[in-house]
Amino acid sequence: MIIADRETVLKTPELADVMRRIVGSKNVLSTLEDRICYSCDGSKQQYLPDIVAQPCTTQQVSKILCFAHEHNIPVYPRGAGSGLTGGAVPVMGGIVLDFSRMNRIMEIMPEDLTATVEPGVVTQTLQNEVARYKLFYPPDPASAAFSTIGGNVAECSGGITGLKYGVTRDYILALEIVLADGSVIHTGRKTLKSVTGYDLTRLFVGSEGTLGVFTKITVKLIPLPETVETLLAFFQTPADAIKTASQIVANNLLPRALEFIDKSSIDCIKAYNRAFKIPAETNAILLIDVDGRASSVTTESSLIEKIVVENHALEVTTAKNSQERNALWEVRRAISPALYNIAPFKINEDICVPRSQILEILERIADINERYPLLKVANFGHVGDGNIHVNVMYKDGKSQRAMAEGMIDEILHATVELGGTISGEHGIGNVKSAFVPLEIPPQELQIMRNIKQLLDPKGILNPAKIFTQTNNKQPLQ
Ligand SMILES: Cc1cc2nc3c(=O)[nH]c(=O)nc-3n(C[C@H](O)[C@H](O)[C@H](O)COP(=O)(O)OP(=O)(O)OC[C@H]3O[C@@H](n4cnc5c(N)ncnc54)[C@H](O)[C@@H]3O)c2cc1C
């Protein structure tokens, strides 16, 4: 699907006038400096939008889309811009819709176990607010402190709680959506169950801003677990760690978090902060959270400790209070900055394989790495649900980028071969669109394109994302 010739599109001054009439002057950003701030996201690509509008109401979003539809102008919904696959990047110029002004928690209904929010609400703000009612919104991406519910729904974000509680899609009950032509639809119900008609809500969750723009989101809540305990276990081999993870679940235990850290990541963490007490022979770490009622948590965590010890752990530490828990989680949080300390450039993949294939994919990645000796690979992630963040790191941005891409290509092929997926939670955006046909067969891909065509016939909504398209503007860098 090719968007209309960009030459016919209005330029920044005319667009600014129209946007000011719709959302008010203080909610339009048109200077070069402002537009540069909205030109990138966590994927570190840079494309300049023509204008940034900050709508405050559904009606304003609808008017903007009506206008954009009539004039063939691309529109990019944007939350916090923390996406890692270029979802919010305005690759063809046009209008960025920044949802930071639509950030109200509209209602929390403790008896119904629901909350309705605007898309710009920061995920952790919602988690904290519902906790005041002893309720829990479980999806917990590591970016929860700054990413938005709108972005989470568009990406179907996961995070550390996926194994026990599922991902964003499992908590979205109803959506208010503005379609590409400006019309407003409502999908789902504010009920915990509903099977009337096709599940349109699920179609839109994970659609990466390409099918419609969310203006209200109703989420499901569950009772807040009474307590959480954390265990940090050090292993001499990755095989012991992976076997432990598997045996924990096989023993009817379902931890809230089951995180894996490999040897390369451990080396980076050690170099980053020597204060972390990690036994010298450690080649793999498991970080485990157990939650629930205090009495069952104590029992479960001692059962897990027993399994950890039986699988030859070098050492295991248990934290009982939030201060001790935080100290253990510091090791996990240190990974991202620690990796950048070793090499300034990295490509971050988030493959997901069936749980039985975790060790196999780690071994295949190691084998592939042998063919790329100048590159360093660090793997960590949500091993409980088979989701591994593979980080290919390189020191020279010019000469080694192609090498890193070659390595990623091989890793993604191996992942799909093992029955896995090229993205467990970060989405496709424009960064991974070339790899989609590797996983999705032509007929299924055509059904997806037909859905896009039906809902956005002019291709104005977040163009050139998910599906490959070649008529992007030149990036700024
Ligand atoms: C340090 C760090 C840690 C992270 N950890 C995790 C993790 O553990 N798990 C995980 O899944 N992700 C993680 N991410 C990725 C990222 O935070 C998530 O993808 C997040 O959901 C993006 O939210 P956002 O508000 O920043 O959205 P943006 O990046 O602004 O946008 C993401 C996508 O959502 C669309 N969008 C935004 N708002 C709307 C709307 N109202 N209607 C329709 N579409 C919309 C955009 O067009 C875009 O396609 C991490 C990122 C960083 C930087």
What does the secondary structure layout of this molecule look like, with pairings?
Blueprint: H1 12-23, E1 28-29, H2 32-37, E2 51-53, H3 58-71, E3 75-78, E4 95-98, E5 105-109, E6 114-117, H4 123-131, E7 135-136, H5 149-155, H6 162-165, E8 172-178, E9 184-188, H7 200-204, E10 213-220, E11 222-223, E12 227-235, H8 238-250, E13 257-262, H9 263-272, E14 284-292, H10 294-310, E15 315-319, H11 322-333, H12 335-342, E16 345-352, H13 358-370, E17 376-382, E18 387-394, H14 401-417, H15 436-439, H16 442-455
Parallel strand pairs: 2-4, 3-4
Antiparallel strand pairs: 1-2, 5-6, 6-10, 7-11, 8-9, 8-10, 12-14, 12-15, 13-14, 13-17, 16-18, 17-18
Helix pairs in contact: 9-12, 13-14
The structure holds flavin-adenine dinucleotide.
Write up what this structure looks like.
It is a single chain. This protein is of the alpha+beta class and 477 residues long. It has 4 domains: 6-101, Uridine Diphospho-n-acetylenolpyruvylglucosamine Reductase, domain 2; 105-223, Uridine Diphospho-n-acetylenolpyruvylglucosamine Reductase, domain 3 (2-Layer Sandwich), CATH 3.30.465.10; 227-334, Alpha-Beta Plaits (2-Layer Sandwich), CATH 3.30.70; 343-439, Alpha-Beta Plaits (2-Layer Sandwich), CATH 3.30.70. The chain is built from 16 helices and 18 strands. It has helices spanning 12-23, 32-37, 58-71, 123-131, 149-155, 162-165, 200-204, 238-250, 263-272, 294-310, 322-333, 335-342, 358-370, 401-417, 436-439, 442-455, and strands at 28-29, 51-53, 75-78, 95-98, 105-109, 114-117, 135-136, 172-178, 184-188, 213-220, 222-223, 227-235, 257-262, 284-292, 315-319, 345-352, 376-382, 387-394. The strands form 4 sheets. A 7-stranded antiparallel β-sheet has the order 15-12-14-13-17-18-16, sandwiched between helices. A hairpin with a 4-residue loop joins strand 17 and strand 18. Helix 9 (263-272) packs across helix 12 (335-342) and helix 13 (358-370) runs antiparallel to helix 14. The protein is globular, with a radius of gyration of 23 Å. Residues 41-42, 76-84, 87-88, 99, 119, 141-143, 147-148, 150-152, 154-155, 157-159, 208-209, 213-214, 336, 425-426, 462 line the site of flavin-adenine dinucleotide (FAD).
